[in-house]
Task: inverse folding
């Protein structure tokens, strides 16, 4: 058995997916007043879900990449399609999710460490 | 992707929104200025924002760090409003013309106040985004504990 199983690798990919999503959402808020700007998002959930559903092994899960999607929502007269309230809500939701993922990853590392007798 | 990418993006927005506030303050301060260096009354100024790092040239400039972070916002320029000047009847004014009309700046205080609120709220939203990113990075450090 490997030291880090597929779940652990999946958790780490999800953490980096959430970090990538945070950058996209921060960019949306930064461009809330830029004419012609369209809101972007990173759907790392469905990419990881697809990887797990296909029964991927650790290495394959590790290679999962997350694409940035552009949203075509309701536009203002200047062509800007950023809803500040929606983006703020997504931002705090994503941050909570990130913290949860880090907590779970840390918990699993703790288990391995006590098995090793490291603490 | 750099670790502090989202912080850089929010920081670029903070400076852009601050400039918008500065320009709005300038417009309000000069709402009654009938003389400028270029002659004629003061003309309302407006900030033009642009997404930085868009397209190939933008990505190259962002990579060379000569043009803010990719996905951030940058100020493309400050343009003058081309709306016509307001004509106010005030024959005693030193800048009044033969008919007694004075050409006043094309500044509407109501528009400026709305811009000020918009800039202020956007600033707050970006400060919140920055704080959230900071919390996330702090949490990541717990993995090393």
Result:
């Amino acid at each position: 058995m490997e030291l880090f199983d597929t779940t652990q690798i999946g958790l780490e990919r999800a953490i980096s997916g959430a970090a990538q999503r945070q950058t996209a959402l921060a960019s949306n808020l930064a461009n809330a007043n830029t004419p012609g700007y369209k809101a972007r998002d990173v759907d790392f959930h469905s990419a990881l879900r697809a990887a797990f559903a296909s029964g991927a092994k650790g290495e394959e899960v590790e290679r999962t990449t997350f694409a940035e999607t552009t949203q075509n929502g309701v536009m203002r007269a200047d062509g800007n399609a950023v809803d500040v309230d929606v983006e703020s809500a997504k931002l705090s939701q994503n941050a909570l999710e990130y913290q949860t993922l880090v907590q779970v990853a840390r918990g699993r590392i703790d288990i391995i460490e006590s098995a090793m007798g490291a603490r | 992707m750099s670790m502090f990418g989202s912080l850089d993006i929010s920081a670029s927005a903070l400076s852009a929104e601050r400039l918008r506030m500065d320009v709005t303050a300038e417009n309000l301060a000069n709402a009654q200025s009938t003389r400028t260096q270029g002659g004629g009354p003061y003309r309302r100024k407006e900030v033009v924002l642009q997404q930085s790092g868009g397209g190939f040239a933008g990505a190259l400039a962002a990579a060379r760090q000569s043009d803010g972070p990719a996905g951030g916002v940058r100020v493309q320029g400050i343009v003058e409003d081309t709306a016509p000047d307001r004509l106010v009847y005030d024959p005693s004014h030193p800048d009044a013309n033969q008919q007694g009309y004075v050409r006043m700046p094309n500044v509407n205080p109501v528009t400026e106040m709305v811009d000020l609120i918009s800039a202020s709220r956007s600033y707050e939203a970006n400060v919140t985004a920055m704080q959230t990113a900071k919390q996330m990075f702090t949490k990541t450090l717990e993995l090393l504990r």
Residues 109-141 of chain B form the longest helix (33 residues). Residues 24 and 111 of chain B are 9 Å apart (CA to CA).
